[in-house]
TrEMBL record:
This is Bacterioferritin-associated ferredoxin. InterPro entries: BFD-associated_ferredoxin, BFD-like_2Fe2S-bd_dom, BFD-like_2Fe2S-bd_dom_sf. Keywords: 2Fe-2S, Electron transport, Iron, Iron-sulfur, Metal-binding, Transport. It comes from the Bacteria. PANTHER family: BACTERIOFERRITIN-ASSOCIATED FERREDOXIN. Its cofactor is [2Fe-2S] cluster. Pfam families: Fer2_BFD (PF04324).
Length: 62
């Protein structure tokens, strides 16, 4: 699903950045993508996906 319509950033891309690149915050996401830099409507949903993915990684390690 596309999270950021302005820059075509998908939920799959966000999860990939967390799982493969080790990014765990929005600052890191913004360094790798243009997410949230135009209209900003995607930021809340992107944060939810980011937090969910980081939490699932943490649970797998524990």
């Amino acid at each position: 699903m596309i999270v950021c319509l302005c820059h075509s950033v998908s939920d799959k891309k966000l999860r990939q950045l967390v799982l493969e690149e080790g990014i765990s915050d929005m600052k890191g996401i913004r360094r790798c993508t243009a997410l949230g830099s135009q209209c900003g409507k995607c930021v809340r949903h992107a944060k939810d996906i980011l937090n969910e993915t980081v939490a699932s990684q943490y649970k797998q390690v524990s």
